[in-house]
């Protein structure tokens, strides 16, 4: 069975602070995909990033960066110089690779509520 | 916006009733997945449809059923509604050749009284 754990239920920061959201996962699949989604108050899940398990390069996209460490089964997400518009619930998710029963089916963590104060 | 649409946006039903939720997938996508998100929780996978056939199911009872139409739009039907069915129901679409990335619609908020 797959499992995603986001230990931080809520994080509150002041604008311009850096913030890191933690994600730890469990899977028996040898290859898999990891995701981060953002859910603003409107409710729609917004896709942020997808990583393949065989690609451990970290990635930076503007103010966002992701640190994937297969050895510790972690896929952490950092927002640099946070802004009020970053306030949302952030979900980490996991999907198995092709051929596995969990292929294409996302397993989500519980989410982290991020509040950025002006 | 993802191009995935859902209707209705909100719905109130009473226990024991039946409900149908609808989803139109993004252009070019032939796979639709449905998720249930209870308040304060992460989304839970209900089932997935690929080319009008069910392609996997999560841990949901048979009173949750679905359909996919030739234009790849989809319906989620829930019979004999229970109070715990109150949730945000999310639809996601993806390309069959790229199932790994799913794009979500705005969801339908269902309240069962």
Q: Please, could you describe this protein's structure?
A:
By secondary structure, chain A is mostly beta strands. Chain A has no helices and twelve strands. In chain A, the strands form three sheets. In chain A, strands 2, 5, 6, 10, 11 and 12 form a six-stranded mixed beta sheet that branches. Chain A has a four-stranded antiparallel beta sheet with strand order 3-9-8-7, with no helix packed on it. Chain A has a two-stranded antiparallel ribbon with strand order 1-4. The N and C termini of chain A lie far apart (41 Å). The mean pLDDT of chain A is 91. By secondary structure, chain B is mostly beta strands. In chain B, the strands form two sheets. In chain B, strands 2, 4, 5, 6, 9, 10 and 11 form a seven-stranded mixed beta sheet that branches. In chain B, strands 1-3-8-7 form a four-stranded antiparallel beta sheet, with no helix packed on it. Chain B is globular and about 40 Å long. The mean pLDDT of chain B is 93. The chains are: A mainly beta (118), B mainly beta (113). The interface between A and B is medium-sized, with 25 and 28 residues.
């Amino acid at each position: 069975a797959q499992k995603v754990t986001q230990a931080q239920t809520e994080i509150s920061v002041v604008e311009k602070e850096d913030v890191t959201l933690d994600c730890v996962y469990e899977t028996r699949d040898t290859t898999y995909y990891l995701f981060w989604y953002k859910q603003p108050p409107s409710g729609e899940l917004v896709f942020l990033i997808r990583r393949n398990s065989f690609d451990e390069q970290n990635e930076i996209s503007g103010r966002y960066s992701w640190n994937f460490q297969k050895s510790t089964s972690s896929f952490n997400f950092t927002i640099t110089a946070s802004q009020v518009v970053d306030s949302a619930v952030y979900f980490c998710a996991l999907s198995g690779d092709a051929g596995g029963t969990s292929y294409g089916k996302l397993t989500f963590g519980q989410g982290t509520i991020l509040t950025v104060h002006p | 916006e993802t191009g995935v649409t859902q209707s209705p946006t909100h719905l109130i039903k009473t226990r024991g009733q039946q409900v149908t939720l609808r989803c139109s997938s993004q252009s070019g996508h032939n796979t639709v997945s449905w998720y249930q998100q209870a308040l304060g929780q992460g989304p839970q996978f209900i089932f997935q449809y690929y080319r009008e056939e069910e392609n996997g199911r999560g841990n949901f009872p048979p009173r949750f059923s679905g359909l996919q139409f030739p234009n790849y739009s989809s319906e989620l039907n829930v019979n004999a509604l229970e109070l715990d069915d109150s949730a945000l129901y999310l639809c996601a679409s993806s390309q069959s050749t790229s199932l790994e990335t799913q794009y979500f619609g705005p969801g339908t908020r269902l309240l069962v009284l």
